[in-house]
Specification:
The complex is a heterodimer of chains A (about 230) and B (about 240).
Chain A (H helix, E strand, L loop, with lengths): L1 H11 L1 H36 L3 H13 L2 H12 L3 H25 L3 H9 L4 H32 L11 H4 L2 H34 L13 H13 L1
Helix pairs in contact in A: 1-9, 2-5, 2-7, 3-5, 3-10, 4-5, 5-7, 5-10, 6-7, 7-9, 7-10
Chain B lengths: L1 H7 L12 H4 L6 H6 L1 H36 L4 H13 L2 H12 L3 H25 L3 H9 L4 H34 L9 H10 L2 H29 L2 H4 L3
Helix pairs in contact in B: 4-7, 4-9, 5-7, 6-7, 7-9, 8-9, 9-11, 10-11
The chains are: A mainly alpha (about 230), B mainly alpha (about 240).
Chain lengths: ~230, ~240
Amino acid sequence: MTFIHAFQFIGDNVGLLWDKSLEHMALSVVAVAIAAAIALPIGLWLGHLHRGSFLAVNVANIGRALPSLAVLSIGIAFLGVGKANVVLALIVLAVPPIITNAYVAVDGVESDTVEAARGMGMKPIQLFWKVELPQAIPLTFAGLRTAAVYVVATATLAGFFGGGGLGDIIANQASYGLDGVVGAAIVVTLLALGTDALLAGGQHLITPRGLRGETELRGAAEYQATRVAPETA
Amino acid sequence: MIGPVLADSGPVIPNFGRADTCLRENHTFCWSWVKAHWSDTLGPALVQHIVLTLIAIGIGFAISTACALYAHRRGWFERPFSVFSGVLYTIPSLALFQLLVPISGFSTLTVEIALVSYTLLILFRNTLTGLRSVPEETREAARGMGLSDSQILWKVELPLAVPAVIAGLRVAVVTVISLGTVAAFIVDKGLGSPIFHALQSNFTTELIAAGALAVALALAADGLLLLAQRLITPWSRYRRA
């Protein structure tokens, strides 16, 4: 019964849910964009140099181990409640998967390919832009996708920390009732699944044709990232 | 007349025990509170958190190993189970907890169902990939020695898959510890419970202490599993040398 009422709540509150969803996505997009701007250059360049695997892999291990609620609460304890601080905490959570995937992607480009390019007289910069980067796109993008889905999910917790978004409704059962909470939970779920599907499509489009099919399955990226861990850590 | 005056004076201030200067002046972090409340708040929450995690990992491991073994035999099973567990993995934790409430109520069962569902994708994929990455020559050699299919599975494939399985366990355990903090929104258990209490009373010491404990627990579990993997599979260390 609750589910029927939850859908009634969604129907009755389309405007509210739309506003909260926009707020939710704005929060997430800003966090992922800033995290990507920080993490992509570091990860890709370290991969190009084949240096700092310890850093790249351990950043991810530690980052993955950080409970999101704990990061948010510790951050908020020091910085205070508010949108900017929630975004900051989300950035901290989004950076590790992006760095690791970018690193693993470039570092793992076949050495034969790199040698061939070098033999053709490519400079390191050309090698990076024309050979390594195109090959690294699928796995790098998979990292972005992992981070984005993670951030959309975690942004739900922002409701507890004055960050707004759909978490506002889920955290406030006193005002919206269980129907409203379940309704908002349904909307968040759709947002997360939608983000994942959208980025999966983007990943498919951006992947060079010859490389399609390998890393597209959900979870492949998580596995790739974990596979390097036990051997290098 | 003091009684009623106290009762009317704003929000109820949590009882911090022997209040010292740090607490009276409301500093960001008071070590004394942590020491005073280890045995009645933080310790029990930590133990509950570990129990929640172990149950979820145990059940999740059993389900996903069974499914991975089945998918190893019957290839068609991989795709549907990957999609199914991938969808579960993508649902935000707070939302999944809430979606289960109408079905199983505000109970530990709700929490465990959600936590288990987050382990499936990672454990299934890692176990299956581990089983599949056994070199064909190794399998051939085992068959040549006269091992049956089930002997090959138990004596060759599974032992060789152990590093991948443990890599999956590491991610799964850390994920469950992380999401277990959110579970306190449903049942008053685990390290999330002091975090939510602290949020309501705006008490930063408890917020930081419980948060740091959750981080420490996750890192410790990750380290322990890595150590276990090195002990169980000593050969994987020599491979690179």
